[in-house]
Structures are given as structure tokens and as C-alpha cells.
């Protein structure tokens, strides 16, 4: 049993095999980061490439996503661990028009595990909802996720609205098409291309 078995099981949409292989890998001491990055996340890149080349379509992408999420659920208790005291409040969501939530959920899980109070607004979240949630919960940081180039402008709109509302919340952005340069361009306070990086960024912004 290897990490490749996990990757192959996700690509084959075999939820049960994903769960069994993830459990077996954890039990045999495979590093959690490897299971996550080289197994589950890498598998989504394989599916994405197959989608680009017309080998698979949306229903298959969705099945792979469900298989991946089943594996993530097994990993979740191992991703969290520093939740002893609340260190601040973080609002998170996938922006308007975008339904991708695997990466957002992963960030949410790790931020929660690092001891922050996380308010997860879900997917397809419009600017007004982000602003009012940041206000109501007195958020320290608002995290925006986007996986489509067509929904990235919604990040710019939300970052601007949060600043204009005069809230204390800092904004950070992420998702496969997002870059550091884009974060700077739209005036966001930070960017990371992975979930542990998001946690580090949030810690720094709150300490600043
Ligand atoms: C699974 C998937 C789907 C699933 C989503 C299921 C779900 N519940 O999320 C479904 C089938 C619904 C789907 C639909 C579509 N999809 Co899709 N999808 C994917 C796929 C294969 C994987 C995405 C994923 O989960 N990656 C794994 C996660 C862990 O990675 P991640 O999201 O990038 O997150 C990490 C980091 O980016 C970061 N991060 C994420 N968010 C945040 C936030 C913050 C604040 C920070 C700091 C960091 C951070 O941390 C995460 C962990 O490391 C990608 C291909 C790819 N490789 O990205 C295509 C992809 C994103 N989809 C694509 C497309 C085109 C679509 C559709 C338009 C297809 C269609 N014709 O209908 C629809 C759009 C639906 C909509 N309105 O949103 C394109 C986008 C192209 C583009 N340039 O815009 C891609 C790239 C596929 C491709 N190669 O063409 N999709």
C-alpha cells in the first residue's frame, strides 16, 4: 500500500478504497503531509488535467471531489491539534459564482485546528455577506477562496468593500488561479497557495 494507491483511488472515484488506503497509511506511519499533498491533492491535479484534455467531464470531476473529501474526513483529526485556546476570529468563504470548496474546507479545518474561531460562510458568497459577517463576528481576518479565473474579480470587490466599511479585518486570498501579484494588485493583506501557509499568514496578521 503506497501513496500512489490513494491517488489512484481518488482518480478512480473509489471512495471506499480512498478511505481504507488513507486509514492504512496513517496506521503505518506515513507522514500526514504526504498523504494530503502527494495523495489527495495531487489526485485533484490529475483529474484537473484530464478535464482540460477532455478525458473526463464535470460529473467525473465531482465524483473525484467526493472521493477526495471522504479521504480528507479521515485525515481531519490529524490536521488539527493546536485548538487549546481561541486566538482570534476568521471568516472564510468561496466567492460569488464559485462552487469549489475542497481547498476552502481544508484551509478552514487547519485554521480551526490552529485554535481560531472559524465562521465558514460556504460557497457562492457575495460581497455583502462577507462584509456583514466580518462586522457581526468582529472578525480579525477574512479569507476568500476562488478556483475560477472568472470569479477572481469578486475577490477584488470584496477586499475593497471590507476596507471601505472601515472594519478591522485583514483580508487574505487563495485558490489555484490566485497569485501573490494578484493579492497585491487588489490590495489584499496576503496570499498563500496552501492551507498551512494560510495559518501562518493569519498568525502574522493578528500579531502585527
Ligand atoms: C473538483 C473540481 C470541481 C468540482 C468542485 C467540487 C467541490 N466541492 O469543490 C466541480 C465538479 C463542482 C467543479 C465544477 C466546475 N469546474 Co472545477 N475543478 C475541480 C478540480 C479538479 C479540483 C479543485 C480542487 O479541489 N483542488 C484541490 C484543492 C485542495 O486545491 P485548491 O482549491 O487550490 O486549494 C488549495 C490552495 O489553493 C489554497 N487555498 C484555497 N483557498 C484558499 C483561500 C485562502 C484564503 C488561502 C490563503 C489559501 C487557499 O489552499 C488549499 C489547500 O492547499 C480543479 C482542477 C485543479 N487542479 O484545481 C477544476 C477547475 C478549478 N475547474 C474548472 C472549471 C472550468 C469548472 C467548471 C466551470 C466546469 C463546467 N464547465 O461546468 C465548473 C464551475 C462550477 C462553479 N460555478 O464553481 C477549471 C477552472 C479553469 C479556470 N481557469 O477558471 C479547473 C482548473 C479545471 C481545468 N483544468 O480546467 N470543479
Detailed description of the structure:
- The structure is a single chain.
- The model has no long low-confidence stretch (mean pLDDT 92).
- The longest helix has 22 residues, at 58-79.
- The protein is of the alpha/beta class and 208 residues long.
- Strand 1, helix 5 (102-113) and strand 2 form a beta-alpha-beta unit.
- The chain contains 9 helices and 5 strands, in the order ααααβαβαβαβαβα.
- It has helices at residues 3-11, 15-27, 32-52, 58-79, 102-113, 127-136, 152-164, 180-186, 195-207; strands at residues 89-94, 117-120, 141-145, 170-174, 190-191.
- It has 2 domains: 3-79, Methyltransferase, Methionine Synthase (B12-binding Domains), Chain A, domain 1 (Orthogonal Bundle); 89-207, Cobalamin-binding domain (Rossmann fold), CATH 3.40.50.
- Helix 1 (3-11) runs parallel beside helix 3 and helix 2 runs parallel beside helix 4.
- 58% of the residues lie in helices and 11% in strands.
- It has a 5-stranded parallel sheet, with helices on both faces.
- The chain starts with a helix and ends with a helix.
- The protein binds cobalamin (B12).
- Cobalamin binds next to helix 3, helix 4, helix 5, strand 3 and strand 4.
Amino acid at each position: 500500500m503506497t501513496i500512489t494507491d490513494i491517488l489512484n483511488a481518488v482518480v478512480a472515484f473509489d471512495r471506499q478504497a480512498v478511505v481504507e488506503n488513507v486509514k492504512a497509511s496513517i496506521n503505518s506511519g506515513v507522514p500526514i503531509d504526504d498523504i494530503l499533498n502527494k495523495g489527495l491533492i495531487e489526485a485533484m491535479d490529475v483529474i484537473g488535467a484530464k478535464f482540460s484534455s477532455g478525458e473526463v467531464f464535470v460529473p467525473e470531476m465531482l465524483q473525484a471531489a467526493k472521493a477526495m473529501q471522504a479521504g480528507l474526513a479521515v485525515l481531519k483529526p490529524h490536521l488539527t491539534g493546536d485548538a487549546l485556546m481561541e486566538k482570534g476570529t476568521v471568516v472564510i468563504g468561496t466567492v460569488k459564482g464559485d462552487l469549489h470548496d475542497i481547498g476552502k474546507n481544508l484551509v478552514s479545518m487547519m485554521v480551526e485546528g490552529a485554535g481560531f474561531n472559524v465562521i465558514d460562510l460556504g460557497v457562492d458568497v457575495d460581497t455583502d455577506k462577507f462584509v456583514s459577517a466580518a462586522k457581526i463576528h468582529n472578525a480579525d481576518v477574512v479569507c476568500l477562496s476562488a478556483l475560477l479565473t472568472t470569479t477572481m474579480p469578486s475577490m477584488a470587490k470584496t477586499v475593497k468593500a471590507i476596507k471601505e466599511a472601515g472594519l478591522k479585518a485583514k483580508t487574505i486570498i487563495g485558490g489555484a488561479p490566485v497569485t501573490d501579484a494578484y493579492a497585491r494588485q487588489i490590495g489584499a493583506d496576503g496570499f498563500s497557495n496552501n492551507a498551512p501557509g494560510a495559518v501562518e499568514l493569519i498568525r502574522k496578521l493578528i500579531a502585527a
